[in-house]
Amino acid sequence: MTVDSPRTVVLLRHAKADWPQVPDHERPLADRGRLDAPSAGRRFADDGISPDLALCSTATRTRETWKLVAHEMPHRPKTVYEERLYDASLGDLIALVGETPDDVSTLLLVGHNPGMHALADALSGSAEGDTLARMTRGFPTAAFAVVSFDGSWKSVEHGVGRLTAFWAPHESDSHS
Asked: CATH number for the domain including 55?
């Protein structure tokens, strides 16, 4: 793969978390989250989303989400649990994407809001259909955005990508 090959970044927000009396980092998925995460995984499989590398926040809810999503996928990518995804700023997320190895064509980030929504919005200079309008209305738990761009991972910056898909588990229709 050349450094100018097409790249895709998939941004998955963790599924709905519970609020037990534990530190934020240790919050587990709620019952609804345990139902929604596999739905996201099935949508990945149906849409042919096949990451080469998954970077997942170390928080309990993101690790649980990723396990349930990955179980529904025909191909499980290499997974790295990345502390920097927890409580990451937009700048932190852009820097993290920029560190992706050149041999990765599709990167998945499993993280938190507001970061996942902010990164999808920042990278999306254009969009297919009504994807941007739908994403702008909100980025709920277990939702994901798919942004594609040309160039190296190091060239990632505001507006370089095209939002090609946005999916949320409880949308009233089946838009991609």
From this structure: 3.40.50.1240
CA–CA separation, 176 vs 174, rounded Å?
A: 6
Quote the CA–CA distance of 90 and 119 in Å, as a whole number. Answer: 6
Give the chain's domain count: 1
CB 11, CB 110: distance < 8 Å: no
Helix axes 90-98, 115-123, angle to 10 degrees: 60
Q: What would the two tokens of residue 155 be?
A: 């060239």
Report the SS3 class of residue 113: coil
Instruction: Label the pairing between strands 144-150 and 161-167.
Output: antiparallel
How do residues 147-174 score in pLDDT, each as one tens digit?
A: 999 999 999 999 999 999 999 998 754 4
Which residue range forms the structural domain that includes residue 151?
A: 6-167
- Could you tell me which residue, 172 or 69, shows the higher pLDDT? 69
Say if residue 5's pLDDT is above 60: yes
Phi and psi for 140 in degrees, rounded to 5? -70, 170
Percentage of the chain lying above the pLDDT 70 cut: 95
* Residue 113 is assigned to a structural domain of this protein: yes
Q: Is residue 172 part of a domain?
A: no
Q: Does any domain span residue 173?
A: no
Ordered alpha helix ranges (H), 76-169: 90-98, 115-123, 131-136
**Residue 3 banded pLDDT, cuts 50, 70, 90:** low
